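Run log, item B.
One chain of 309 residues. Sequence copied directly from the ordering sheet:
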Amino acid sequence: MINRRHIITSLIAAPLLWSSAAAVAQDGGKLPVVASFSIVGDFVREIGGERIALMVIVGPGGDGHVYSPTPQDAKTLAAAKLIVINGLKFEGWMDRLIKASGAKGQVIAATQGIKTRNVPHRHGHRDHHGHNHSGQADPHAWQSVANAKRYAANIRNGLIAADPAGKAEYEKNAAAYLARLDALDKDIKSVFETIPKERRTLITSHDAFGYFGPAYGFRLISPVGVSTESEASAKDIALIIREIKRRKASAVFMENVSDPRLVKRIADETGAKIGGTLYSDALTTKDGAAPDYITMMRHNAKTIADALK
C-alpha cells in the first residue's frame, strides 16, 4: 500500500510545469493564496475579500488529519504568494508537500501566538501507524472563538505582508470580521446559560473540542485522541463507558469527520441518546449545516444545548 510519504516524495519527480501555474493563479491580478483546509480557508476568504484568489487544498467535508496530497496540490502551492496553514501538526503532510512543491510563497501558521492545550496521556492509545500522540499540542484551536480572533489577526498580518497595497482593505475586512466573532462568542455563551453545570459533559468521537470545553464550561470525554487517524483501545472505551454512567450523561455526539459506529456503540452501552452531529474539523458545502466558521459554531452550540437541556 502506498502511504502519504511515498505520494509526497513522488511529487519531487513530477514534471516541472509547476511554475506555469503561476500565471493561471494570478486570476486577473489578484493575490494567489492557498489555505490548507476548509476552516482556515474560510478565515482567509473573509479577510482577503476581493483582493485574493483563494485555493483550499482540503475542501468541504475533507479530513485534514488524513488527507493524501496530489500532484495538482503541488502545482497550486508553487503558484501561491501566501500559504496559510493551521500549524500545530494538524496537517502532518503539509511541510513535506511545501518542500516537494518548491513553493516560494510566504508560509504562515494561523495559530501563531495561541496558548496551546497539551493532549492528555492515554494508555495504549495509538494511531494507525503505531504512534502515541500524548504530550503534543492540541491543534484544534479554532474551537474557541477567542482563538479564532487570533487566527483572523494572524491572517490579516500575513496578507498585508504579502500584499502591502491591500493593507487598508485587509484591515477593514478583519475589523468587521472580528466584530462578528465577538458577537458570536457572546451568543454561544448565552445559549449555554440554560444548561445546568452538572449537565455540561460533552462526549464526542475524537478529542477535537479541547479548547471549546474550557471556553464554555464543559467537561470533555472522547474515546479517540486529537487525530482521526487514532484508534481507541478497549481499555479507553471501557473507562469512558464507566465515566459516562457515573456522570449520568444524557447525550453523546457524532462528528462529521469521524466514523459514527463507536459513538453509537457507546450510546447503546450507556443508555445515552445520540445528541446530533457536530462539525469539528471541516466545513460543509454551501448547502450544508456548516458552510462557514460562524455558522458551524452556531450549529454546534445549538445542537449541544438542545441535547443537554
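Observations after the first pass:
- The chain has two domains: 4-181, 191-308.
- The two ends are 47 Å apart (CA to CA).
Flagged for discussion on Thursday.
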